[in-house]
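Example with several molecule types.
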Amino acid sequence: MATKSGAQKNARKGEPEGEGVFKTSVSARHALDRVFSVLVFVAAMIGLVVLAVLLVDIARDGLPRLSWAFITSFPSVIPQNSGIYPALLGSLWLLGLTAILSVPLGIGAAVYLEEYAPDNWLTRLIEVNISNLAGVPSIIYGLLGLGIFVNLLGGITGGQSIVSGALTLSLLILPVIIIATREALRTIPGAVREGGYALGATRWEVIRSHLLPMALPGALTGTILALSRAIGETAPLIVVGAATYITFAPDSPLSSYSALPIQIYSWVSQPQPAFQLAAAAGIVVLMVVLLLTNSVAIWLRNKYQRRG
Amino acid sequence: MSEVSGERSGIGRDQGDQPSPAPKTEALGMKTENLSAFYGAFKAVTDVDMEIRPNKVTALIGPSGCGKSTFIRCLNRMHEVVPNAYAEGCVKLGDRDIYARDTDPVTVRRRIGMVFQKPNPFSKSIYENVAWGARINGYRGDMDELVERSLKRAALWDEVKDKLKKSGFDLSGGQQQRLVIARTLAVEPEVILMDEPASALDPVSTQKIEDTMAELKERYTVVIVTHNMQQAARISDYTGFFYIEHMNDPGRLWEFDETDKIFSSPNRKETEDYVTGRFG
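Resulting structure tokens for the full complex:
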């Protein structure tokens, strides 16, 4: 059947142009093709150009202000002496703790849903909700964090502490990690699982030895991009009580803290122009942190993909 | 469930801490009684009674969609891996019912290995592909020796002995399929099920797989699903013909006999039409 219809197609292609019932102009079709290619090129460029203008603008304002002193100093009422040190440290604490909390939970939930969960109304309900949760505005998570981690569990988390912030950010990115990991697991052919089972392996043995290593590049990429998003979040952290002005560096998960976007936001809202320059320099620092985490994601993905 | 009798007790014989048995030459046979297979409410195969002789190659032939693959997957409880799929009836390895309530499918699958239509090596080195199954099953012997022996039996050793650390995916399709066979042999099964193992391979690779099979039956019982009737005639000792008489009926074992008989003077007209190429 298939070969027959293929042969017919070839016969048709062999016919001279313009004969029979085929009347379309090839040049008009090519013209349309060119118009479309220009349109999509413009669409791609608009995004890139806007981003480039933003970056150049920030760099022009921020780079002159950036110095080792800026990175190692505390914020001050004198804009020229202000530094980003506690906010940078706070953000790194948040990044680390959020990763520790959300990665095992997210990957675990994804493995359960994709590999263990039976297909029934409960799992379908959970799936729909996880997809919806990925789209919930971040300030809602902030309010949830305030209610649960700061107030209800304040005795354990220390109230407005790094732990509360990290737990809130973990909630925020969990759905993204779960979805990314599930997608990665879903792309693994069923033949891999069957090959394992056929040797007398249990589900866990197949997951540990084959599925997780194969899903790792995809899961890691999704996870680190989600972490990058978390590190740039401001709204939920303001709600759960990140400080805008802090004169000591956080030294434990229970410390109060500030974070880069909070510090930037605080400087931007100051009237003195010199604080605007500090904000620009702060944005450069934040961008560098983001680019570093993203390049770790790319490095990890390439490293594990090569093994396959 | 029948009583355990004699030396060869089937499932569970070497569970636990005993070291794996020495390489054997005499394998166990299998037997199905009233075996039916379902996908949810759909009955794909019905009432198959078949005796699979030990140390012989049994070929399963028949038109597409008549339940050969489903049937062979029931023989090592791989059928039930598909959601909502289940089997009814009795399947025995030796004299033990592999569907008995207290039988763990994980144990069954170690004793009854399976090679699939498309080669599915693991995303690991050639060495690890072979060693992995043995390791999870608690193999305590010399792993290097086991890997070498398994690859030799699968007729792959000479081609890969210098690149055991390379990925299984670096091999050609035919080599990958022999790697899968080697990996199956490494857990020392009694029976090897092959579901169209050569259908995705070129003629030269197919020839190598067929040669391998002829040697495999010295030590193992082999069941193979094939669409290639010359292949069935060449390599098998017994042949089962699966057939669906009316649309939407479940597949049945239409005729089962020695391969020579099936291909020269089958008892039923449909079998003859099929093996002589008049349909299918």
